[in-house]
Amino acid sequence: MKTYFLTVFDKSGERLLNETFEASNNDEAKKIGQKRLDEEGYSEYTHRCVSPEAKLVLFHR
User: What does the longest C-alpha to C-alpha distance in the chain come to?
Assistant: First the structure.
């Protein structure tokens, strides 16, 4: 399992969510990240999910 980083920002740049989770690959991480965003109501906020290799898995601006 790899550790992924999910971060959500508001319009002023303040972090609203900054957490890690584990997934076995980038596709699974994308699904987990999107589910977490939906649960918290942050789907339309600026967000990113980054792999341990610093690859963007999920991004919205």
Answer: 34
